[in-house]
Amino acid sequence: MRLPDNEIRDITKLLEEGKPLPDKYRFMLFGDDREIELVWNGKSRDVTNVILPFQTIEHVDEPRAEANLTAQAELFDPTTGRQLKGWTNKLIWGDNKFVLSSLKSGPLRDEIEANGGIKLIYIDPPFDVGADFSMDVEIGEETLEKAPSVLEEIAYRDTWGKGTDSFLAMIYERLLIMKDLLAEDGSIYVHCDWRVTGLIRQVLDEVFNQSNLINEIIWYFSQGGKGSSYFGKKHNTIWLYSKSTKPIFNEKEVRLPFTPHKQDSKGKNFGGRMGTDEDGREYVEKWGTGKKKLYRYYLDEGKLPEDVWTDIQSIQSAATERVNYPTQKPEALLERVIKASSNAGDLVVDFFCGSGTTAAVAEKLGRKWITSDLGKFAIHTARKRLINVQRELKAEGKDFRAFEILNLGRYERDFFVSGLADLDDSQRNKAEQAKEQAFNQLILSAYKAEPITGFRTFRGKKQNRVVAIGPANLPVSRLFAEEVVAECIEKGVTKVDLLAFEFEMGLFPSIQDEASSKGVDLVLKHIPKEVFDKRAVDRGEARFHDVAYIEVRPHFNGNSVCIELTNYSVFYTQGITSFAEEGLKNGGSQIVVENGQVIKISKDKDGLLNPREILTKNWHDWVDYWSIDFDFTNRKEIVRIKDEKSGEFSEKWTGDFIFENEWQSFRTRQDRSLELKSIFKELPPGRRRIAIKVVDIFGNDTMKVIPVTIGGKA
Ligand SMILES: C[S@@+](CC[C@H](N)C(=O)[O-])C[C@H]1O[C@@H](n2cnc3c(N)ncnc32)[C@H](O)[C@@H]1O
């Protein structure tokens, strides 16, 4: 379109003056013939192209009984009954933005395509504007609210920080990549509620095309609270879109029992004429529109559900499938979705895993799966749930697949230094550097360290130790920690504290052992959230706490070994006890966490503080789960690396080992007990390294590796 000269002049003038253009130009200036489009502040079709390697942290596989090995014997190790080959399901910890971009263009893409591609995506994003990552967790006899971690808060801010605009930007970018990942005959189900359904519909129309909208499913549930000043909000909407015109749809798999039509006392039928055919099959006959054709429906064939689903209840407090995850969806809902839009052996994916409902149902229905979440607590909840699914399937004599837990690991150096992976060098401007400096300054002053300059990774000094600080919005990766140790060796520094909000899974204690073997005393400390609270910093209440530690004792019986968990210490502090005490109402009480103790504080009705009551009676109250790999060094972590020039992939050992989950004990909602001694496991004679992993009630993991000699002493 050629604009008149006066319009061109006006536009130029406005641009020169740095003023916004009037709305009418939006449609005149751009070569796009869309008549309707949802636009929000900052909308862009750019998607992140960061590829981060997936790092395998843990491999979980219940040993199979011999009888089950015969069917696909080549897939399994005959001595251990564990899966050796074929697809392994994936539970990934990380922001799905980077999970998606890394799946799209990284080495896993080939494996996905070799397994038929992704046939079904179900997502249930956090659509509640007020929702956060707080969770109720049980400790001993008490329930404690786990506050969100700093990284979770940052993610929450990215999603809801600027209200609907940021939610739309978040979901739009992810949907664009999901479409790319979907197989041609694949479908996507997007679960949302009244707050965002209208907007999500527009975004989905744009990404998947209106012509690929298959259904607007209304899931109605009557349970739960209802307001008295408005009509009860008792449904969610699930948008179903296909990638192209021929999606998988197994209508026969999801049929419901056909309710027989009623006859009155005079034999008159309602809703159709009932009858029985010559084979004794019951049917109902109905005339089509205009009474031109008579349709016969057999009752035993059931009925395809319509788009309003009223037969699936939301999770009730007593439901056996409930795992205490606040946004958990019912398995029956996922069962219908997965049966309808995928076949056995297909790959089903959920990028907002939560408690792992999609993966659990996919496993039960014989599908392959990938699922991801950025909350460690979600990953841990899903891990326990999926182990239980393996155990159940094993007990029923059914097949199941191994799964692995992955980190989005080893961030590139540029990525972690400023955490600005999305920006290129030219954009990484002075303002951002200033922000990083301010962040470091804040942490150093709370840690009571002096700033130092001129180093790659050191930011401060405290007495005779240098101080390095992890990135503001990512967990500290092994690469980061290795870089810190390398700089210590270069500069002849022997004592360093590495401060971070979060550490990659499985990082310690191996990283400290590695540093110590090079003569560097590396101490890892968690940065408390209170560094952002000036009052807390001024009063010296922002406590940097140590990472947890484990004590174990091996017991031997001939060539068999059993591990006893003898101690586990955490040093968490959540909130500032003295502030909480000041804020208590008369007669009120609150539960706080201070230096690894759960404490109940309360005031009497006259406003006097009662003595603090320590609720954590035993060290093992903190332990939610522990597991053992009896031969830690037998499974090397191999990654595929792409050669930038040739585009070829090659395999390389990262220097790490994958924790093979061979035995585990954990608490569930129904059974809060925990075994503190493992089974005896027979091992071949010789020196072995046994790894013990503990996950605490907040979902954070710690590992310890002990050397043992089989046929001798530890
Ligand atoms: C509504 S819940 C999903 C519940 C799940 N359908 C179930 O049945 O348990 C949404 C989940 O998305 C996760 N989440 C939010 N933003 C994310 C992101 N950027 N990357 C990965 N996960 C995210 C949250 O941690 C939360 O567990």
What would you say about this model in short?
This protein has 714 residues and is of the alpha/beta class.
Describe what this molecule looks like in 3D.
By secondary structure, the protein is of the alpha/beta class. The chain has four domains: 54-218 and 345-408, Rossmann fold; 262-301, no CATH class; 414-527, no CATH class; 549-710, no CATH class. Helix content is 25%, strand content 28%. The protein has 17 helices and 34 strands. An eleven-stranded mixed sheet has the order 12-7-8-6-3-13-14-2-15-1-30, sandwiched between helices. Strands 16-17-18-19-20-21 form a six-stranded mixed sheet, sandwiched between helices. It has a four-stranded antiparallel sheet with strand order 31-27-33-34, with no helix packed on it. Helix 9 (331-341) crosses helix 10 and helix 10 (357-364) runs parallel beside helix 11 (376-395). The model is unreliable at 411-423 (pLDDT under 50).
Unreliable residue runs: 411-423
First and last CA, distance: 81 Å
Beta-strand segment tally: 34
**How many separate domains?**
4
Largest sheet: 11 strands, mixed
In CATH's first tier, which class of the largest domain applies?
Alpha Beta
Bound molecules: S-adenosylmethionine
What keywords describe this structure?
28% strand; eleven-stranded mixed sheet; single chain; 17 helices; alpha/beta; 714 residues; 4 domains; globular; six-stranded mixed sheet; Rossmann fold; binds S-adenosylmethionine
